[in-house]
Amino acid sequence: MKPLKILLLLTSLLILMLASELIFFYRNEPEKLGKLFLNFALSEAKQGNYNGSIANIDRAAFFYFKQSGNDYRGKDIGYNQIAFYPTNENPRKEILNNLTKSIPLVLEKESISLVSNIYYNLGLIAYSNKFYKQASNLFLTAVSMDYKFGHLHVELANSYFYRNMFEKGIEILKKCKQFKYPKKQCQEYLETNVRLKVFLPIGIYKKIIDDYQSN
Which of 28, 47, 58, 187 is most buried (most C-beta within 10 Å)? Predict the structure, then answer.
């Protein structure tokens, strides 16, 4: 057999083996593919490539949804619609700095709660820069990955209330009541704050959420 044919055969076998391994991870251990894209996002962030880093953050979310087994988003958004691209340099720098600090911790601890925390904090940055729809999408992504934590549900619901999307906010809190652990907090928020239309500021639970998700 000629050397070229041998090389082509070996290349084909290698591609088949790689494809088989990727399919296995996709079906059985999607978080490993999510981790791969987080590595790409970190590399791009360190180089100052905002668009490249955010694109990989989007891709990572898709695989972590599969790991969590609870795509809370339903049909609201696609995984490639969670990010935002501000033209102002300040939020871009803030996000890149955030990613270079937060991703290494996620890669070290391999915690789905820490992955969720990345999207929650990106949502806060988006909200503070008046990207309100993107903030809701990012909070929704965070909740999808860590749906047992009531404070995240309330932050997400508030992001809809402040956009005058009251039915959507109430829907989020009612859905929250389906889960055992966050049920009480969401019920109380519905019966007090929502009934009186006294909504807490976005980000009021940041310290609680950061502390909870880092443990």
Answer: 58
* DSSP of 171-201: HHHHHHTTSTTTHHHHHHHIIIIIHHT-PPP
Kindly report the pTM of this predicted structure: 0.83
Q: To the nearest 10°, the Cα dihedral for 30, 32, 36, 39?
A: 120
Half-sphere exposure of residue 150: CA atoms within 13 angstroms, side-chain side: 15
Say how many C-beta atoms besides its own lie within 10 A of residue 109's C-beta.
12
CATH topology of domain 72-214: 1.25.40
Low-confidence ranges of the chain (pLDDT < 50): 17, 19, 22, 24, 26, 72, 74-80
CB within 8 A of 182, min separation 6: which ones? 147, 148, 149, 150, 152, 153, 176
Q: Which two tokens stand for residue 37?
A: 């894209």
Nearest Cα neighbor of 58 from 93, 28, 95 is 95
* SS3 call for 131: coil
The SS3 of residue 30 is helix
CB 208 within 8 A of CB 151: yes
CA dist 203 and 143 (Å) reads: 14
Of 93, 87, 117, the C-alpha closest to 105 is: 117
Helix count and strand count (H, E) for the chain: 11, 0
